[in-house]
Amino acid sequence: MTFGHPAFAPYRQLIDALDLGRVSPTLDGLNALASARSITQAKGHPLRFVAAKGHLSARDYETRILHSGQVPTRADTWHDVMNALVWLRYPRFKAALNAAHGEAIGLETDTIRGRRRDALTMLDESGVWVISRDPALPVLLADHAWQALFWEQRHAVETAMEFVVVGHALLEKLLAPYPAMTGKCLMLDTDASDPDAESHAIAALQTIDSPYQLAALPVQGIPGWDAANATAAYYANASVFRPARIKPPAAVNPLRPPTPAPSPDRQTGESPPT
């Protein structure tokens, strides 16, 4: 297994500590790191990775973490190991995300997932923090102006932007990357020189109440993330670098704080945790 993709740079110390390139991860190894870092979740319970047994709904999965600190984990699947890596690297963000799930669940009147929890799930699975010292660049991203952003403003992106993958499903895909991989962006109110992006990400979670606020990002288009993207022709592939869709009237500009949502809308059914 290779972890050479630039998206794994924030996780390099953990990858080396677990020797993930050579040996299979174990719950004991993950828990040793969690204990050494004194990681807790939102209610102050020590974080522990425990063997996943049977089927848990997404609701029960998040609730178990919130009330016990136990994260059901299949140590033999990269999907769950990537989730553990994000917990170990960005524990305050993951704890806030779990607490937000719990809060959203508490507001739902049945088992149907509302739009806020839809958005939180997207961030958990495919989230990417977007940090920029140039406020014009995230606007190009939100507008799907891919050629302008990644080619015409390539130097600016390389020097003034940072992209941090925190979605564990997206990290799993990056083990064997392909052009159509897409992340969901959490735009942070900070710049690429700020060392505490995690605190800004936690604050940004409070402004998210709809999936429409999470701009899509073909992550392989980020300069340097795919050797093939060193030519303008790379961004001409409209099946990957799609134009922005016309948003429904209720959609919110992802760069502006949302208005408070009414009762959770029932767009999607409950799905199991991944």
Determine the structural class based on helices, strands and strand pairing. alpha/beta
The strand order across the widest sheet is 4-3-5-6
Distance between the termini: 20 Å
Number of helices: 11
Task: Tell how many strands the DSSP assignment holds.
Answer: 6
* Estimated helix fraction: 25-40%
Strand content: 5-15%
State the major sheet.
Answer: 4 strands, mixed
Gyration radius from CA atoms, angstroms? 18 Å
Low-confidence parts: 256-274
Mean pLDDT: 89
Give the tally of structural domains: 2
So what's the overall shape?
globular
Summed up, what is this model?
This protein has 274 residues and is an alpha/beta fold. Helix content is 38%, strand content 10%.
Structure description:
The chain is an alpha/beta fold. It folds into two domains: 6-112, no CATH class; 120-236, no CATH class. The chain contains eleven helices and six strands. The protein has helices spanning 12-18, 27-36, 58-68, 78-89, 91-107, 115-126, 136-142, 146-152, 154-160, 168-173, 197-205; strands at residues 48-51, 70-73, 127-132, 161-165, 182-187, 216-218. Residues 256-274 have low confidence and may be disordered.
